[in-house]
Write a structure and sequence with these properties.
The strands form 4 sheets. Strands 13, 14, 15, 16, 17, 18, 19, 20, 21 and 22 form a 10-stranded mixed beta sheet that branches. A 4-stranded antiparallel beta sheet has the order 1-2-3-4, with helices on both faces. Strands 5-6-7-8 form a 4-stranded antiparallel beta sheet, with helices on both faces. By secondary structure, the protein is α/β, with parallel strands linked by helices. Helix 3 packs across helix 4, helix 15 packs across helix 16 and helix 20 packs parallel to helix 21. The chain has 3 domains: 5-92; 113-320, Dna Topoisomerase Vi A Subunit, Chain: A, domain 2; 341-390 and 444-613, P-loop containing nucleotide triphosphate hydrolases (Rossmann fold, 3-Layer(aba) Sandwich). The model is unreliable at 97-108 and 608-618 (pLDDT under 50). The protein is elongated. The chain has 22 helices and 22 strands.
Length: 618
Amino acid sequence: MNFDPIENQRHDRAALEAEIRAAGSTIRGDQCNCPHPDHEDRNPSAAIHAGADGVWRVTCFSRSCFGPKGADIFDLRAALTGKPIADVLRESRGDNRPTGGRPTQPTTPAPDMLSLAKQCTIAITPEQLAHLAEGLGVSADALRRLRVGWLADQSAFTFPMRNASGKVVGIRTRYADGRKAAVRGSANGLFIPADLCGDGALHVCEGPTDCAALIDMGLAAIGRPSNSAGEDLIVGYVRQHPRDSIVIFADRDTKPSTAAATISAAERLTRRLIPIVGSVRIVQPPEPFKDVRAWRLDGAMVDDVDALVEATPSRGPAGELRAVFAAEIDGTRRAVPWPWRLVTRGTQALIPGAVTLIAGDPGSGKSLWLLEALARWTDDGIPCAIFELEKSRSYHMRRALAQRVGAAWLTDPDEVMRRPCEAMAYQSEHATWTDGLGRTMYDAPLKPMTLAGLIQWTIDRAEEGARIIAIDPITAIESTERSWEDSQRFLQTVMPVLDRVGASLICVTHPRKGKQRASANALDDLAGGAGWQRFTDTILWLERHDEPKSVTIKGGDSFPIPEQVQVNRTLRVMKARNGRGAGWSIAFDFDPGTLRFTERGAIAKTNRTSKQTQGGDE
């Protein structure tokens, strides 16, 4: 047994849950509201899970508040208290000394930040102000507007930091050697100049000196405390001081990890500002300049900033729509076609960010139908990933090979034993193809897949660049008694990621128990709850006919005129948010000898007075 109190708590789910609840989050099963203090999570987007090391962690899937690995109980406690993790661990062991082992100093009352800021502003001399302005390459007037001051007992220049309402909540100090710190008791805040005009674009930069450089160019600007801090303060300030547009200046850091964090923070702030402002742009000073002040020192003027902003697409609604149109015009954003013409034309199901649900009774062939499509996409070089939650990868690869060569007998072990030479010849001939398709498949896990695990798997595949992600069947995951909430939580968590990276998701499901062979018009009979109806873009229902069904088709590949045919499958388009085929019924033939599907055409809808082709001109 491990008697280390730290490790015991890290391996104790109940201890982590208590910490999450103490942060004000609600827990349901493995899901919870993100407990990070900077995340107002109204729709639960975090999950509790145990890693391979047995440590229980909480992971935020919508904003990655704790990073990709998540936070254990002590990481979470550090985030909630603002203390260094080393101090949190020491306190948990009963050692209350701060980092470094120095004895705790007696606490002193926090200073009145506004009074201290005023004193510092009065104390600075014209000579000191001019010296600082010359050293920074900005004007004394810009520094005055930022209420720069002098703290004599520390021999440091001061910059007041303000909350969203403009109240002074802290003081940044800057020393002669360039070091930066803060007066004890300070809270992080924004650097907001006096007499800030309320018209035009607001420029958000990092720190007070970049802010001064933008002021010198005649621009309305505020500074954030660092490349990632102050997000809530900026949002609050913009809510109180509305603007038509925001320009976020991100520093051009040379260290890759810092550069990535800077852009990620800017993206995160952008997503929060768009609903408030509309037009938001992220810009960086041109190379080789690290920040705005360096660019200004090289002679940059307001016209240079305006040109940079104009050349940067807006992240607001108008900019987003423009980007969509541009991507569709140049072909970078398009629906991946199905192997069947009418399914593609009627649904446009596989546009980036879209979710498709394939439903059908057991034995309808929906998994084989998807497998045939997956093989085609892989042949076409489209990056795919499928999680086969039932059966092993070899089981599904055997069926895929049978489809490819048109020999269903390859799925029968007795037939393979009777025809060993043929079976091995097929396997050898298509080994390279099998390896390629097999790399897209993730087979059934050794233990039941949780909702949190499936969310993470889907996000990982999307981040890796899979254009099409499939899960067969979605109903195989462990779910709570509130399955409708599980489906909503899954989709609301993964859909923003799909949209951001441009991936499409396909999920296979079936009717609820007791509803097999139900009417294909009864979407309420789908397993998994109402979330699938509400949040998916396309719902396809594959219906099996035990006896061939006689239908009239129009618009088939072979004959452009109406034709009476016998079919053994009907694909019903129950929902087509991105296409015009909602309500279509498409005739299919399934060949049990090859395991392949053939699209025959759109089924003409008939009644006593007229015959109409479902889907209009099809």
